Recover the amino acids of this structure.
């Protein structure tokens, strides 16, 4: 009789242990790929990143001298500090690169803020942000964007993030490519 009791405890313990293992397997984050239930299509959906791509050159983005600030003035108040509607500044830049088939594609991001000036009020400010890629004197990419930021509070700064996801140019063979971001108001107006 005692043998049967121990045998019964063993079977109950084994059943509980099996249930715990089964429950733990259901809670894993494997999504069924342990048994290859999804087939090879699940693995094929994720493109593999090669070591050469991780080590590939990705040109840094720089703010060009004198292009990190932008002022918007009330009509007729150009260069009058009391007529400043908004003052915008670029504070940080970053990028990601992809090099496929001899073409480098970059996503260039710029962070900044808009501060209302003495003549400022809630509204939209349109900023001319240019992203340019150069190699020596050769311009590989240049795009001027009219980026709008909504300013809701005339007494506080508004932060923004702008990005150009389509910066594309022939993949550089060396490290002689420079990427610039900044405000571009165009050529100065002629004096009359």
């Amino acid at each position: 009789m005692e043998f049967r009791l121990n045998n019964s405890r063993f079977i109950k313990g084994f059943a509980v242990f099996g249930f715990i293992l089964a429950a733990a397997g259901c809670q894993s984050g494997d999504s069924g790929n342990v048994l290859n239930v999804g087939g090879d299509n699940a693995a094929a959906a994720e493109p593999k990143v090669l070591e050469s791509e991780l080590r590939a050159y990705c040109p840094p983005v720089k703010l060009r001298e004198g292009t990190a600030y932008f002022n918007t003035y009330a009509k007729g108040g150009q260069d009058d500090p009391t007529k400043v509607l908004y003052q915008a500044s670029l504070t940080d830049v970053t990028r990601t690169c992809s090099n496929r088939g001899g073409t480098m594609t970059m996503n260039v991001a710029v962070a900044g803020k808009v501060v209302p000036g003495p003549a400022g009020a809630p509204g939209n400010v349109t900023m001319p942000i240019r992203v340019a890629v150069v190699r020596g004197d050769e311009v590989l990419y240049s795009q001027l964007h009219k980026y709008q930021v909504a300013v809701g509070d005339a007494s506080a700064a508004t932060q923004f993030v702008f990005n150009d996801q389509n910066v594309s140019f022939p993949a550089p063979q060396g490290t002689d490519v420079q990427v610039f971001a900044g405000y571009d108001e165009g050529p100065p107006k002629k004096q009359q």
